Model the fold of this input.
Amino acid sequence: MRLAVCAQQTEERRHMCEWIDHYCKVCSLPAAVICVDTPEQLLLQPAGAIQIAYIGFGSYKGFLAARSLRERDHACSIILIDDTPQYAIQGMHLHLADFILRPVEFRHIARSMQLAIGRF
Done:
């Protein structure tokens, strides 16, 4: 399984990658986690290459990245992360696996991983 974390804030991105890696090890899930700085880098990945994508770029830019990813890859489980719940409702149209309201904590990662893996 290949996962991507796309978040603007370096510390948040680093923590999320560590938490996802830890979750996968504890649950004995074979996974490779890649961290990307921008939505554009995420969208450079070929369709089907990412099974789970965490997009925490904030505001409309993150939502647009999620929408672009969904248009290219219907099977990818997308978790959107934002400061406001506004995009949670819009994310319903994208069939998000989960929505995380900042601040992100390990328990949020664990819940979203369970939801995303359940979609396979």
The chain has a mean pLDDT of 94. The CA atoms of residues 6 and 109 lie 14 Å apart. The helical segments are 10-26, 39-43, 59-72, 86-91, 106-117.
